[in-house]
Amino acid sequence: MKQAYKKFSPFQVDPDKVWADYNLSDSDFAPATESEKESLVEIRKSVSYWRDAARRFKRNTVSMVALGIFIIVLLFAFAGPTMIPYDYSNQYRSAQKLGPFEYSRQEELIRSLEDQVDCMYATALQPGSATALDAGTYYFKFKGNTYCFTLEKKLAESVIILKDGELSTVKEAHIQNGEIKRSTPLASTGEVADNAKEIKVTTKVFPHMVGTDSQGRDILARTMYGARVSIIIGIVAALIVLVIGSIYGAISGLCGGVVDFIMMRIVELIYSVPEILLVLLLQVVLKEPLQRWFDSSHSWFANALSTLGAGIVSIFITFAVLYWVTMSRIVRGQVLMLKKQEYVTAATALGASNGRIIRRHLLPNCVGQLVITTCLQIPSAIFLESFLSFLGLGVSAPMASLGSLCSDALGTITIFPYRLLFPGAVLTIIVLTLNLVGDGLRDALDPRLKK
Amino acid sequence: MLIYILKRLAAAVATVALIMTITFFLMNTIPGSPFLTEKSTPQQIELANQKYGLDKPLIVQLKNYLVNYAKGDLGVSLKMQEGTPVKTILFGQGKFELSMRLGLLAVLVAVVLGIPLGCLAAYKRGTWVDGLLRVLTTVGVAIPTFVLAATLLIYLGVKAQLLPVLSGSLTSWKAYIMPVISLSFYDVCYIAKLTRTSMLDAINQDYIRTAKSKGVKNKWIVLKHALRNSLIPVVTFLGPLIAFIITGSFVVETTFSIPGLGKYFVESVINRDYTVIMATTFVVSILVIGMNLVVDIVYKIIDPRITLSSTDE
User: What is the pTM for the complete model shown?
Assistant: First the structure.
């Protein structure tokens, strides 16, 4: 006790001494100066709940690595499509059923020109059913220069090449062993004519890194797009569950009594329903009425939803109807527990209004649980979506999600296993990393739960 | 106890009736008729509607359904196997039996493998065994059933040619391996995780310390004292487990071309065969709700501290 007293007292008082022994003068009783006061201020800053949680989360290596990988997957899904020249819905007729890093005959031909020309435009490598270039005026930009040219007649199975500033067209048949046997010069101007259409030129044939499907669509591009769709569905579904579940649970917990009893019986009822049966039914039932509504209504809301497609919207509705019950139970449990805490009683005794208690005491103490549950809801939503899409419900073509990609690949699994394994692996990584991040968040936000 | 069981049974019957009602109304909001094909005339549809009682008011149809179901009459298929009684389709053609064989085997594997693995991880806590199992189970719960099923199919079925690619009606023991692994893998991992956590929880309890101080061997502490108490969360999971197995069976039966209940249900939903959808929903609901009831009662037997009279948590 004596030791502790000495340690924390700035005046070094020894209680064994008699006061007179100290030889105190008047100056010892003068008010403390600013610098003296400062030395008394606690050195450790108070740490807020969130900063504390962030610190704990950062110390969790597994979760940090998982978060890093998830961010890479996010980049893959959202920034990736801008880095490759292929699109998820474009069909390349010349490049059907290719394996990883395989090239079709035309692509090989055009690849052999890569080193000889500055840039080129190959009709065979264009997407769509009609790849030929119709007669007309076109322009393109390359290294700051603009080139504009006019085609007298339709151009098919040919390559337009730019070599030493000169434009010419080469028929595919005239390329042999990487050599151009015959070419036709094409007059060009630097000015863009009024009715000219822009074409995109390339310097290299971009490889199909994971191959293409039977309709000549690039699987890498489709997987990127599918990952994006799956992640967005997961997040939106989790948010829907968060909003409905927490409002329902909070009302039930706060009101108590008969209201609570009835609301919880409803939850129990939904709980006992074998949800997967109803999910499948809802998918089929909702599709057509939704489609009809999209077609007839012109409000911005209907338009926004119709771009998503009836399949995705019915997944959201399914979550809104069936999957909020777990969240509502958690929130109700939290509210019930917090309601009985001493600090809430104290606040009530001090005359705090209900609104203030909710804002100051209940909400901040619930937030951790809400974040954790929502974060763990995302992977389970992605799981459900991929399950539905795999069974042929969920998203519909030409849209793709990771589940529908796996489903499409199932038919040809014996010949092209990577078509299923690649999106499947991406799906697994997304779910795994989100699970680990969720676990890390739980440890960080709710240290009492840590095991 | 008896009163509790009777109460729960009544609630279960009410839930099944409610599910049937919801399913009935959901199905009737689907536009179009099960008899609508490219060739059918309005008269033919009218006739078929009359024949199967679909021209009556919805309430009357619903009443007929519920009354017939209570009598055990599941009606006849309207579309997929027109005229055949649904009971024959589900039970007579071996669909139900096939799914049950697969499902029960998967549940068995999940419990028999999952619990010991969880115990092992808890017993060897902090060693490489624990670490390995943790990585395995964490990855295991993140792999979707169809990805696992397809991976097995590619490597064991197509590449190595060890196991048959099409499982068919599960006639040989080899045909079981891949479907059962894909069906139970998630649950093995989940149960192992759950057992480990609750086991570690139990190990920190006072009675374990008492047992230790009495000189009981470590092995016996884990098996006798810790295991029994840590099984409660695992038993709770067995209810949802049945639901998971059913979900999985939709995917696994599709992937391995097994003509079971799950595959047939998905097909009947897509084909809008009303009576088949209703009957399958009925059968699966009874299974799930019945299992939940059984689990709750087993719960009581394992842990006498739990009182069954109140339904509040």
Answer: 0.80
